[in-house]
Design a protein that fits this description.
The complex is a heterodimer.
Chain A lengths: L2 H17 L10 H4 L3 H5 L5 H12 L2 H18 L8 H19 L1
Chain B lengths: L16 H15 L3 H22 L3 H18 L9 H19 L43 H5 L2 H12 L3 H12 L4 H8 L3 H28 L2
The chains are: A mainly alpha, B mainly alpha.
């Protein structure tokens, strides 16, 4: 097969894809949707996946609650924060600095 | 609740302008040998570095040594730091390299190339969905909205629930959720620190967040349902 034939096939297939009707919301189950939530939040879904995702959400209270819980998990993780540094450890890190400066000036 | 929409637009690996100016000042002062600038950077980053090191190595003393070695390397490499990435990304990358070496010494190896951990585990227990009939794949036990989420999600108790859930994750997932959601690094910064692809990072983040959500759901529903 020449590359022209192959190209013709690709173009033909693309046209067939475009002509296919929009998949309805039932095309995505709840069980499939939960696996796409991170890609959705990260903006990593294709335009078609995103449409199907949003169409499903519109009609499904359970999945809307799931998405809200996922956002809640992000909020909670952001609230964990950082513990205080142990003063003895801080002092050791400052000692490293003084050693470094002395060595550099020597 | 207000949507938490972090990361839906891809952020660059570079820090925000304000942070960058401030950091640039500290870096210049540090290059001049200014102790206060060093102290400020330690206060800003050292505790987070210790948390990261502790994911790689189980021994707290070894984790502290890794942090110490990291700062020495930061001081020695300061003149070569080119500010193409944020200081935090640069320092974290140094730490990760040292922590991996220390973990190997500790015989607790975690090859990042091995994506083995928990890859196939679903985000939600399959029991929660119908498994036959025309409604196959639909919720049979759907999640319910949490009552007063804003105040409860930031409570001390919930914080402990999240920390326990994160501590129980496989190492690679734990690193990813710690950098992204606890340390608030962008996905580009996280990929740079861990040396992984965006796609790889999303898979790890997905598993990790799903486990944290499940832990929160279990905790918050228990509390809600107690009469």
């Amino acid at each position: 097969m020449t590359w022209k034939d192959r190209w013709g096939q690709i173009v033909h297939r693309r046209r067939a894809d475009l002509a296919r009707p929009e998949p309805d919301a039932a095309g995505l189950t709840c069980q499939e949707l939960v696996e796409l939530v991170t890609d959705f939040l990260e903006g990593a879904l294709s335009p078609d996946e995103r449409r199907r995702f949003e169409a499903h959400l519109d009609g499904c209270a359970g999945c809307r609650a799931y998405l809200e819980q996922m956002r809640g998990a992000l909020l909670a993780a952001g609230g964990v924060g950082v513990a205080e540094l142990d003063p003895a450890m801080r002092e050791r890190l400052m000692d490293s600095f003084r050693d470094w400066r002395t060595a550099r000036e020597a | 609740m207000a949507p938490v929409d972090r990361g839906s637009s891809p952020e660059p690996a570079r820090p925000a302008a304000g942070e960058r100016t401030d950091e640039a000042g500290l870096i210049q002062a540090l290059r001049r040998g200014d102790e206060a600038a060093y102290g400020a950077l330690v206060d800003r980053h050292a505790a987070a570095l210790l948390r990261l090191a502790s994911i790689y190595v189980s021994n707290p003393e070894v984790a502290a040594e890794v942090v110490q070695e990291t700062w020495v390397a930061v001081l020695q490499g300061m003149d070569g730091f080119e500010e193409r990435s944020s200081l935090k990304t640069w320092i974290s990358r140094i730490l990760v390299n040292k922590a991996r070496t220390a973990a190997q010494r500790e015989a607790r190896t975690i090859p990042f190339s091995d994506l083995g951990d928990d890859q196939a585990a679903p985000a939600v227990d399959p029991e929660r969905f119908r498994d036959r009939g025309p409604d196959r794949g639909r919720w049979s036990t759907p999640p319910r909205e949490w009552d007063r989420p804003e105040e409860r999600l930031l409570s001390q108790e919930v914080r402990a629930v999240v920390e326990r859930a994160v501590a129980g994750l496989p190492v690679n997932q734990r690193l990813t959720i710690t950098l992204r959601d606890i340390e608030d690094l962008s996905s580009a910064q996280t990929c740079s620190v861990l040396g992984i692809s965006e796609g790889n990072q999303r898979v790890l983040l997905h598993r990790a967040r799903a486990r944290v959500r499940a832990a929160l759901e279990a905790y918050l529903s228990d509390v809600t349902e107690t009469p």
